[in-house]
Amino acid sequence: MKTREKIIYEALSLFSVKGYDAVTIREIAASVGIKESSIYNHFKNKRDILNKIIDETLNRYYQTLENVQLPNSDDDNVSALYNNITDEEFLDICTKIFLFYLKDDYISKLRRLLTIEQYGNKEICETFRYVFIDRILETQRQVLQNFIDSGRFIAGDAYTMALHFYSPVFLLLYRYDNCPENEEQAINALKMHASQYNAIYRRYPIEREETNS
């Protein structure tokens, strides 16, 4: 691991335990094993380190989406792409993304840090809302609106549907955070939620309806 990467990782580890404001540049340098002045060869200040932590975390998130081959929400054909995914494959994708949020060293520590610091730092509060709430809800809203427009989902408000899907997932993340022994229970709860959500909102193909009539 290069010095810049070590600084990011050690700073995140310290921030997630002690809080952003309580950690000094000197402590970060000591944790990395370098002089305090050496930090400034890589970062402008402590806020710059936090910004790079967020960038690195989001990069890891987008890499995870790419690895699970999740259709791009900006693709006009996203609904048709999802039609090629079976229910089992969809649940598998949901599980992998959920486990990333739950277990990835960077995003789990960042979540703890931002959750704590949001109440005392307005800028960090805005960052927390963007990374863990607004960005995700907007992405899901776009996909669900496409589903509604294409007839894949029943008519309704796409943002509300996004809230209905993500809110329980968000709660499960906090329910099972720091509980590795309950991982299977967390996954089962997630799969039950996703299956129930599909049962409520998804419109199955006309051919299947005609077959069952």
Taking Cα atoms only, what radius of gyration do you get, to the nearest Å? 20 Å
- Give average pLDDT, whole number: 87
SS-based class? mainly alpha
**How is the biggest beta sheet arranged?**
none
Order of helices and strands: HHHHHHHHHHH
Give the helix tally.
11
- How many strands appear in the DSSP assignment? 0
What would the principal axes of the Cα set say about the shape?
elongated
pLDDT < 50 runs, ≥5 residues: 206-213
Distance between the termini: 61 Å
Task: Report strand %.
Answer: under 5%
List the helices and strands and how they pair.
Layout: H1 3-18, H2 25-32, H3 36-39, H4 46-67, H5 78-83, H6 87-103, H7 105-117, H8 122-150, H9 158-176, H10 183-201, H11 206-212
Helix pairs in contact: 1-2, 1-4, 1-7, 6-10, 7-8, 8-9, 9-10
Structure commentary:
With 213 residues, the chain is mostly helical. It contains eleven helices and no strands. Helix 1 crosses helix 4. The longest helix is centred in the middle third of the chain and has 29 residues, at 122-150. The radius of gyration is 20 Å and the shape is elongated. It starts with a helix and ends with a helix.
